Amino acid sequence: MGRGALLLLGLAAGLVLAAGQVRADRDDSEPVPDRAVTLDLLPLEVPLGALSPAALGRAQAVLGASIFAHRVEGIRYRSREEIFRFLLDHPDFAAAVARAARVGEYRLTRTEEGYWGDDARGAGGEIRLLHADPGRRLFHPQGRYEKRLLPTIEGQLLILFEFSHRLSPVGDTVTENRLTGHLRLDTPVVGTLAALVATLTRPLVERAVERKVRRFFRTVARVSGWAYDDPEGLAALLDGHPEVPQDETLEAFRRLLLAHRLPPWAEGLRLVPPEE
User: Fold this and answer.
1) Cβ contacts of 26-31, under 8 Å, gap ≥ 24
2) Which residues lie below 8 Å from residue 204, measured CB to CB, with a gap of 6+?
3) How many CB atoms are located within 10 Å of the residue 238 CB?
4) Quick check: helix, strand or coil at residue 143?
5) Residue 43, pLDDT above cutoff 90
6) What pLDDT sits at residue 266?
7) Interatomic CA distance for residues 102 and 81, integer angstroms
8) Residue 176 domain-assigned?
């Protein structure tokens, strides 16, 4: 089950923390034509021609000053595609579902240009969708990370979320996800932070980000499994829950959750083939 902006906030916090722990080496590599490429040579698999002028400007502002890029792939879990896409397209509702299920504290509020997000752990900011197609979403989170006893870190990210669905050998529907994140820091204390932790190495930071992302998806997989195995139970949890707006979005989600179930009057019926 996708969690759209939930994922972004979790990954953003990890990447911003990681960037505060290490100073990435820079070079003067030229971008590959028609592809967005960071100085880490991790291609962002979205053709630049697919972006609007405003989205292209935001993407280039991050890529042109990127100090860190990382990719996490091979994330698989059971998922109903229609539920996945609904939550991906309604990230504020997805955040409410996570809070109701007690697997997250993220909050998202719709704005004119996207969403304002807060992960309740110090990371918050504006999240904009720059590009969408059937198997990809390109997001631009911009905000800050504030933690007690640590300097405030401000930055921007590009996060490409790639996804697909397939049948597993046992007949379950499985989604496979891949994320590519690129980070630009805007805080004026980057040099100080880097100097304080100069003994840390880039591989350590990459492993920390990898663990954080995979831990986040284990939580996502728990809720996805609930929707897969017990959609009635999840629907019952959301009905009347104070964290979940009781509106047309919830009703549309309930219809998707229960669409494959037999109506009450049909339960217990057994089809008998006609006699020849």
Assistant:
1) 26/67, 31/63
2) 22
3) 21
4) strand
5) no
6) 52
7) 23
8) yes
- pLDDT tens digits for range 241-259: 999 999 999 999 999 999 8
Give yes or no for residue 59 having a pLDDT over 90: yes
The number of domains in the chain is 1
Task: Decide: 70 and 209 in contact? Cβ < 8 Å.
Answer: yes
Token readout for 80 is 């109903």
* 5 has pLDDT over 50: no
CA distances from 236 to 72, 106, 233, 263 (A): 34, 21, 5, 16
Phi, psi of 16 (to 5 degrees): -65, -40
Query: Is 63 a domain residue?
Result: yes
| CATH for 262 | 3.30.530
Joined tokens for residue 180: 């590519």
User: Is residue 59 situated within a structural domain?
Assistant: yes
Q: Position 100: which residue type? A: A
The dihedrals phi and psi of 64, each to the nearest 5 degrees, come to -70, -15
E strand spans, 40-152: 43-47, 68-78, 107-110, 115-118, 123-133, 136-145
Task: Please state the pTM of the whole predicted model.
Answer: 0.78
Q: Is 130 in contact with 139 (CB distance < 8 Å)? A: yes
User: Where in the sequence is the domain holding 238, given as residue range(s)?
Assistant: 4-266
- Find, among 6, 10, 162, the residue nearest to 76 by Cα: 162
DSSP 8-state assignment for residue 64: T
Q: What's the Cα-to-Cα distance from 271 to each of 12, 262, 267, rounded to whole Å?
A: 52, 13, 11
Average pLDDT value over all residues in the chain: 77
- Whether residue 219 lies inside any domain: the answer is yes
Q: Which two tokens stand for residue 268?
A: 């217990």
